[in-house]
Amino acid sequence: MAKKQSITHYSLPERLRYIRRERNMTQSDLAKKSKVSQSTIAQIESGRKDPSINTLKQIAGALNIELAILFATDDVHVFDMKKLNEKYKKVEDLHPTIHVALDRVVRYAKKIGF
Q1: In Å, what is the CA distance from 69 to each residue of 9, 10, 62, 72, 112?
Q2: How many CB atoms lie within 10 A of CB 27?
Q3: What angle, rounded to 10 degrees, do the helices at 12-22 and 38-45 form?
Q4: How much is the pTM?
Q5: Which residue segments constitute the domains of the chain, with CATH numbers given?
Q6: For 15-39, what is each residue's pLDDT tens digit?
């Protein structure tokens, strides 16, 4: 099995396609959510069109990512900010005793190299 290529090695069109697929979105889904035409998204993903910054902002917003992710030169993790915020809210609502225990687990994990 081939090793998965780092997202930093993807061109802008490849990165955009990768993130869209990670979100289980079609080009049509992304077009509706971003208010950018499906044909424009297809042209960007195929490398036939260079998008404006405003277009990329709309697309990044629809994908729930920071615009910088599309241009990052360091290896980055692509997070779904909506899901991340939902998970954060669940943790935030836990009893304070659980927060203390979680802090201890995290400190221990760092100490042993995780």
Answers
A1: 13, 12, 13, 5, 30
A2: 18
A3: 120
A4: 0.62
A5: 1-78 (1.10.260.40), 80-114 (no CATH)
A6: 999 999 989 999 999 999 999 999 9
